[in-house]
Design goal:
The chain is of the alpha+beta class. It is built from four helices and 15 strands. The longest helix is centred in the first third of the chain and has 37 residues.
Length: 273
């Protein structure tokens, strides 16, 4: 075979692989978008798949699957692992970037997550258009919660409190509300630190409870704090105990950023298709 013919055949092969890689990229985006919109009807979502190199998707290798969304509510996150056999494709990063969402009743200004080395069922994605996750390594994530969002959450989950207002800053929280938990209806203020406990709870600690600027007795303060704490329970309130292990809090004026380790859980048997 002449050298020109070899070069020509190589050129055809490169073009073929490039086209096939592009086809696989489009198919992966379609599968991910279809399943996400089915799990989150009405959500404003955009899915982008970036191939790992020119031929990456032809070889079952994506660098990143990025999901952007905003302005929707959901009771949970729409992913779960379904271990199984067969050929798989890999995404080096599965990234979530969500703005202004309500997660199980908690308004979240920003939710970012990066989950590495996610393997999906290649056959199902290619032939049935479904994105089935087979395995993934633990990743990291953050959630930004504003004063207004936390006040809304506390008001909706603590019927004993009305007219709830929250201030965040300087590694602490201030909650102002009207309640009948003390001696009759009163306007109370709680100033406390906010800490992580056992990766699951956000607790108000070292609290100072006042009415009209005067500190109330410990027995009455304890009654109020029993209602307030935990301020947030990842399992009870968000049903994300299998997903998130909170590792720290970073305070800004007007908001707190919750840092967590993120693990995609196994799908429950009754949920499997």
């Amino acid at each position: 075979m002449a050298m020109d013919d070899v070069v020509k055949d190589l050129g055809y092969a490169v073009i073929g692989l490039t086209l096939f890689s592009g086809l696989m990229t489009g198919r992966a985006q379609y599968a991910a978008s279809r399943d996400l919109h089915r799990a989150l009807p009405g959500a404003n979502l955009n899915v982008r798949v970036d191939s790992r190199g020119v031929f990456g998707m032809a070889l079952g290798q994506a660098y990143r699957v990025r999901i952007d969304g905003s302005h929707f509510g959901t009771a949970t996150l729409p992913f779960a692992l379904e271990p199984g056999g067969g050929p798989t494709a890999e995404a080096r990063h599965l990234q979530l970037h969500l703005n202004d969402v309500v997660l199980a009743g908690l308004p979240v200004a920003l939710l970012d997550a990066d989950i590495p080395y996610v393997r999906v069922d290649a056959g199902r994605a290619l032939f049935s258009g479904h994105l089935t996750l087979r395995s993934a390594r633990p990743g990291t994530g953050i959630a930004v919660i504003t004063e207004e969002g936390l006040a809304h959450f506390l008001a909706s989950t603590r019927p004993q409190l009305t007219d709830v207002r929250v201030s965040l800053g300087d590694k602490g929280i201030a909650v102002r509300a009207r309640t009948g938990l003390l001696l009759g209806m009163a306007d109370v203020e709680v100033q406390a630190g906010l800490v992580v406990r056992q990766g699951r709870y956000l607790d108000a600690v070292d609290a100072r409870v006042t009415v009209g600027g005067r500190e109330v007795p410990t027995s009455l303060a304890s009654r109020l704090m029993a209602v307030l704490n935990p301020v947030l329970d990842v399992e009870r309130d968000l049903h994300l105990g299998d997903w998130l292990y909170v590792t720290g809090l970073v305070f800004q004026q007007g908001s707190v950023t919750v840092h967590a380790r993120v693990t995609i859980p196994l799908r429950q048997k009754e949920e499997r298709q």
